[in-house]
């Protein structure tokens, strides 16, 4: 009796949970585009409604080393709660109970933004305000927070039936919104990387150590508590953190000027795609694995080539948009146009590659997937650039909080996700129960991250 109690798994539904996220085919590209419109549109509308002084009064900082104003903690957290109610909670609704209304929600959010820009502000006023607009770097900062928020929401939501299966990761070919997570992290890091700013430093290499540590920590945790692991995602031992670490190691060792990173990245992707089309794709989607470490983790190991090519293109684009261009006056307008053109171009390339070369596959990180990631990410960024035309606020309080502790907030989300999965039978939870759990989870994540920001706590790991 005692032995049976000791042998009892901490996660008795492990197999069922793994099956729940297996053999999925993803969503349509048009639905991904609609979902990718909603988050930045909500941020833009929130900035519009917040006014010029609300955020500054809530948490004013002269620079990154100065703590927010502590005497107004009530105002700070009330503003943070409003940010949650107007941005995070609506996203949660769209990803769950309003999933069938994604297109309608996207259109209903875009219309007021477009009408405001076209009819409520004269052209002369727009021109006069250009010099006051925040730099594109502020928009990229906002975009990176959007990536983290959606990722944190989805990693727990996917374990509940209230979350549509088509939004989860596809098994082989196809793409759900969750398939874009790891690619979005790669692009978000590339745009603001030291390489994009043409800064050579061993700090770039030393910053990889926490990713490697977290990768091994995840292996130990998942095996220790018998946590569900979808082997077809990265392999038996590989995970998200190892992919980011591998890309960073390659980029740090092989030094390429950011001007040429884009060309090198395209050549890597082209060569890798030829290899895939020559038979490597059949090997990667096969369930057969030998005992060697590479075969056990073939998805994670081989996809490094795709993610490295993606990162190099992102570095080149970051240099092109942030370093090799002025930031004020007309140049700001030119930057915005560039972002919109890039978004449209990447989407067109993704559709062409998906239809005529090879279908999108995150599992292999093929050429079509890379272009889809860039198209979706630059779509989010392009919509966020509209905030500058209706509000001169750089960031919301929520954005500042997550920006200060990007990795810390993501780790907290992973810990909370693990705790919920080990304490709740997510598969049998009703829609109401699931939504309440997800609401408490996202609210807790936002408040804890906000608390750390308010007191100037930076969760550094190196």
Automatic annotation (TrEMBL):
PANTHER family assigned to the protein according to its UniProt record, in alphabetical order = PHOSPHATIDYLINOSITOL-GLYCAN BIOSYNTHESIS CLASS W PROTEIN (PTHR20661:SF0)
Name of a matching Pfam family: GWT1
Q: How does it sit in the membrane?
A: Multi-pass membrane protein
Q: Which GO terms describe its biological process?
A: GPI anchor metabolic process
Residue stretches spanning the membrane? 20-45, 76-95, 101-119, 140-160, 172-192, 199-221, 236-254, 261-280, 300-322, 334-353, 368-390, 402-422, 434-457
Name of the protein: Transferase transferring acyl groups
List the source organism. Urochloa decumbens
Task: For this UniProt record, give its keywords in alphabetical order, as a comma-separated list.
Answer: Membrane, Transmembrane, Transmembrane helix
Q: Which GO terms describe its cellular component?
A: membrane
| A molecular function GO annotation | O-acyltransferase activity
Q: Where in the cell is it found?
A: Membrane
